[in-house]
Prior knowledge:
Elements: E1 3-13, H1 16-26, E2 29-32, E3 35-38, E4 42-49, E5 54-62, H2 65-77, E6 82-85, E7 94-98, E8 105-110, E9 150-158, H3 161-171, E10 175-180, E11 184-188, E12 196-200, E13 205-212, H4 216-229, E14 234-240, E15 247-252, E16 258-263, E17 277-278, H5 294-297, H6 302-310
The structure holds fe (ii) ion.
Amino acid sequence: MALHGLGSMTLGVPRVDEARRFYREFGLAELTPGDFASRDGGEQLHVVERPIRQLVEVTLAADDADDIARIATAAAAHDLDVEHHATADGANPGISVVEPVVGIRVRVAVRDRITQSPNVAPPMNRPGYTVRDGDRAPAIFAEGPAAPRRLGHVLWGTPDIAASKRFLVDVLGFRLSDESAGIIAFLRCSPDHHNVGLISSPVPFFHHSSWQVDDVDEIGRGAHHLLTGDPMCSVWGLGRHFLGSNLFWYFRDPAGNFAEYFADLDQIGDDDAWIARDWAPDKSLFAWGPPVPRDFVEPPDLAEIKEALSA
Ligand SMILES: [Fe+2]
């Protein structure tokens, strides 16, 4: 049938315990040390030790073995090594292919589709339109951290955005949703506007993971909780992206990786009805929000990462 989203990701950091603390406060549930679950997506984040921060692996969720076989064939046709995984009885087949530009291991495995119970928008009064008369807003009574529902996307920096894009499209079967050519590209393997984003960078690096929450109030509540613990951990937000339309707020984990809460992302149910467009650079990042911080586009540890990669 098809790929249907991100299954999970493995994040490498030099100091695992610090990162574990951050992702607990971010609102993910730590099942066993370093293994985190979202509310609807189950186990979706593994934090492991590496000398520099990096996205070690991302798992794409497939419906069945045919999807995996198709990708294995395409990978071989592009002269990429394919590692096959299976249990002794042949169950749970899967493959791994290494992204040829930045070296991220992409695993493809059969996973159940994530089912989400409908999230009904809370009543919100608007000018001339009162739906909550005589009631306080439910949002003021919600407390504690956000509780992300699922992993939505990852974005990485690549020194060859065209080659990284070709890998996603020609080997993995992703579709381009929108881009600012040569700067940033957003691609999908599910109805989400994007499951992988690419940003042009002289140094390959992991930019961010993005986690779906219910609405703007849950973004605000999660931000409030994180900022209470560390007033300096905000990177950029609150805002609304132009490409994908989603509301966003980004935070920095102790290793320097960004983690995003998102809500209200564009959904593409009919692939043929969506036309990918090449947007002018001024649309590449946002529709509204605070000015784009320099650290968001060019994290301050890029020189350190470059040195580590060339060692
Ligand atoms: Fe994002």
